[in-house]
Write a structure and sequence with these properties.
Elements (H helix, E strand, L loop, with lengths): L6 E3 L4 H11 L5 H20 L4 E7 L5 E7 L3 E7 L6 H7 L4 E2 L1 E6 L6 E7 L8 E5 L2 E2 L3 H12 L7 E8 L1 H10 L4 E7 L2 E2 L5 E2 L5 H6 L9
Parallel strand pairs: 1-11, 4-5, 4-6, 4-8, 8-10, 9-10, 10-11
Antiparallel strand pairs: 2-3, 6-7, 12-13
Amino acid sequence: MTIGSNVHLLPQTNQLRAMHTIIRDKNATREDFVFYSRRIIRLLLEAAIDLLPFDKHEVTTPVGETYQGTKLAAELCAVPVIRAGESMEAEMWQLHPGLHVGKILIQRDKKTKLPRLYYSHLPDDIDQRHVLLLEPMLATGGSAMAAIRVLLDAGVPEDQIIFVNFLASPEGCEAVGDAYPGVRIVTSAIEERLNDNAFMVPGIGDFGDRYFGTRDSGATK
């Protein structure tokens, strides 16, 4: 399975792999899980922001010289997918004070097994903004594509959506890439595969439950 050019994988440094080793351990404490997840989330958000448009911008330094720098040229909005995506929101506020934030709630229907939109609230001018769509897990891609469709229906151009994601499966990357080739995906790890229950392997468990402490940290999803 080929991962498309729309997928931006963080450099797989020893430090990043060490953090993944800690949080993937089923015996990790919640404190360690949250601490090291937040460190990785910060790296993901920095990488995503770096994909946004920048303009040249000059400033005068304290010694009276000119520095040829850059300045973010995009109006930005973050849209976490409730609930796990909200784990990324606090880090985003730290990087971009005054950020505009929308919310989307999508859950899998128990009968149809398909993603269902329950709630969305987006800024009125979101169609004029670049959007960071925040959702830690990309497994089959169904929920991600449903969330992307909400943004497209609100007028956001496909090439102005960056999907910021903690773990991705090859199948999920391929599904999103085929459906929405203009959407860029930023992730910290691409898993080996999905198993027969559509769980990522080797996996991390249920990210939201482990982050927010609502279930045994060894829970798998």
